[in-house]
Amino acid sequence: MKPSDYNSKHEKGPAHSAKIDRDARRRLKAQREKNKNIWYGMGMFGLVGWSIAIPTLLGVALGMWIDRRWPSPYSWTLMLLFAGLMVGCINSWHWIKQTGKDDE
Predict the structure, then answer these.
(1) Is 90 among the domain residues?
(2) Domains held by the chain: number
(3) What is the pLDDT of residues 42-78, one digit of tens each?
(4) Residue 45 belongs to a domain
(5) pLDDT (tens digit per residue) in 19-51
(6) How far apart, in whole angstroms, are the C-alpha atoms of residue 20 and residue 36?
(7) pTM exceeds 0.85
(8) Where is the composition biased (Basic and acidic residues) (predicted)?
(9) Is 47 exposed, middle or buried (0-12, 13-18, 19+ CB in 10 A)?
(10) In a domain, 9, yes or no
(11) 90 lies in which domain range?
(12) DSSP state, 1?
């Protein structure tokens, strides 16, 4: 094989460096994702579940307390259950978004 054949088959210069950089980043990302096993998924599932359940239950408890103390034609329990659910969903969305930023 002549040296000119070798140079024509293999890239050199900035394009080659960029390809090496892309490959290295892809391998590092694959290695990080490999470390995220079933326990990581279960942990995220638990985090999302609790971040929704706790505000919802707090809303129900507060609503029941208000309904007992000051009876009204409106159900504070139902309204605060919905408000707690919304707060919990926003909270879990925040956690998931934060985790996605950390992975990048």
Answers:
(1) yes
(2) 1
(3) 777 787 888 899 999 999 999 999 999 998 899 999 9
(4) yes
(5) 888 888 887 776 666 666 677 777 777 878 888
(6) 25
(7) no
(8) 7-23
(9) middle
(10) no
(11) 37-103
(12) -
